[in-house]
Design goal:
This protein is mainly beta. Helices cover 0% and strands 51% of the residues. It is built from no helices and 23 strands. It has a 3-stranded antiparallel sheet with strand order 3-4-5, with no helix packed on it. A 3-stranded antiparallel sheet has the order 6-7-8, with no helix packed on it. Strands 9-10-11 form a 3-stranded antiparallel sheet, with no helix packed on it. It is rod-shaped and about 180 Å long.
């Protein structure tokens, strides 16, 4: 029998048929490579590098579940290094809702503790009808979003202030309540004061006067100083002398006046007949 060697196969040329390989589904390996052995009879492949599947190992760390990991080929299962202690990095990962952890290169993790949350960021709908509160762990950034309860209080317009609505969002998280408020003002809706006839207030000697205007909408009182003029009429035989004081004021282009007459009692001279 003559054996012919080629780069990839061995053929047995004795007779009219060649050897047909039947490759095992199991892997064979050494410290560097893995391959499938031929399980057919009379195969004399002796060099592993021409056998089926021959290639370098692909190593990964595999968690053993007992706080150790092993350096294992992910294709054939060959173990190069086994039962080493985990090597946890310093980078804290977000983890899950129960806490954060550090991770070993094999994928195993060591839980460091529960998340620590501070004050949330509130996110409002455009019309302020709904809101959410976003919490983030101060250590790892793990996010939690909570729906808020939203209440609103509307203040009607007044003479001096626009109407407004104050929206208050309340989030309950980890046994604590957090609130945020947003105020929506109806710009330019203040009505302005509506003043009618004033009440005039005179000084005791009538030298000065003020006009007090009261708003019919809010009862606000506006006091304005008046200009005061006087005109005196001398006594006659039958009439006492008197002085007429006139207070004048203008508000929003409308003039208002008030007069007070002060009589000098018993100054009439009486008749003088010749």
């Amino acid at each position: 029998m003559e054996t012919v060697y080629t780069n990839t196969v061995y053929l047995y040329l004795s007779g009219s048929t060649s050897h047909v390989h039947s490759w095992s589904s199991d892997w064979s390996s050494d410290e560097t490579y893995h391959w499938h052995e031929c399980i057919a009879d009379n195969c004399n492949y002796t060099l592993n590098n021409v056998k089926d599947g021959y290639v370098d190992h692909t190593f990964v760390w595999v968690d053993n579940g007992d706080n150790t990991h092993s350096w294992v080929c992910s294709v054939c299962g060959y173990v190069e290094t086994e039962n080493q202690n985990h090597s946890f990095g310093e980078q804290v990962e977000q983890g899950d809702e129960n806490g954060h952890w550090v991770v070993c290169e094999c994928g195993a993790y060591y839980r460091l503790g529960a998340h620590t949350y501070g004050a949330p960021t509130f996110n409002w709908a455009e019309n302020y009808s709904t809101a959410t509160a976003s919490f983030s762990c101060s250590t790892c950034g793990y996010p939690v979003t909570v729906d808020c309860e939203v209440e609103s209080v509307t203040t009607d317009v007044t003479c001096e202030e626009d109407g407004k609505t104050v929206y208050t969002a309340t989030a309950t998280f980890n046994g604590a309540e957090y609130t945020d408020t947003q105020t929506v003002t109806e710009e330019g809706t203040a009505t302005g004061h509506s003043y009618g006839e004033p009440t005039f207030n005179w000084a005791e000697d009538y030298s000065t006067a003020t006009a007090a205007f009261t708003c019919s909408g809010c009862s606000n009182v506006l006091e304005v100083g008046c200009g005061v003029t006087s005109s005196t009429t001398a006594a006659t035989c039958t009439a006492d002398a008197y002085t007429v004081y006139t207070a004048s004021v203008s508000l929003d282009g409308t003039p208002y006046t008030d007069t007070q007459t002060v009589t000098e009692e018993n100054t009439a001279t009486g008749h003088s007949y010749g």
